[in-house]
Amino acid sequence: MNASRSTLKLLCAVTCLLTFTFGNVSAQQKKQKEQKKIEASIVTISDFSKLKESIPKELLSITHGIIIVPKLINAGFVIGGKRGRGIAMVKDEAGKWSNPVFVTITGGSVGAQIGVQSVELVLVFKHSSTLKDINKSSFTLGGDLSVAAGPLGRSSSANTDYKLDAEVYSYSKSKGLFAGISLNGAALDIDKEANEVFYGKAISAMDIFNTNKSNNVGVMKLKTSLSALK
């Protein structure tokens, strides 16, 4: 009887140990997945900074929010769909970027389109308050939130014939084959699960937006890359 109890205790101990070990591995793997989004976002910002014709300095100087989606998949034949995961950040009054909030963009479209396209997408917000409102509910691009195609011109004197009247501007760098891309009808949402995994606890998007201190090397590098995008 004692031997049986000892064996049972041993099995329980082993089971608990395995559960704890594999549970931690799974949590670590999930966090690494979100960390890769941060690293991919750094690459996207780097890609844009190398373009001769990219986001104008005039717009960057008044930008207080940004969404970076390293890989937006756009696919379809007349009726299409899109799906991507990325990060959102806002700039405070002192010009410091907040920690990243993980977001998703999902939607469909109808029009002249065929094929599959992988797009690096950047949405530039003139005011941080607009982006912070995503914390309250999802946005429908082109509906609740109007998005204009971003003007191009790196130098401060480029494209002086346009006015920066829109609130949000979109920029995309395409990979693959696709004819036509539209963000109209796409839903922009907070990825609560990804935020909880990355930060190790349930945390609201607003709390993240209001925090600019981080010991994460990737996050610090991303902030540096954004500050250098001038």
TrEMBL record:
Domain Ysc84 actin-binding, first and last residues per copy: 106-228
Protein name: Lipid-binding SYLF domain-containing protein
Record has Signal as a keyword: yes
Organism domain of life: Bacteria
Keywords for the protein's UniProt record, in alphabetical order: Signal
InterPro entries (alphabetical): SH3_domain_YSC84-like (IPR051702), Ysc84_actin-binding (IPR007461)
Keyword hit for Signal: yes
Species of origin: Pedobacter jamesrossensis
Signal peptide annotation: 1-27
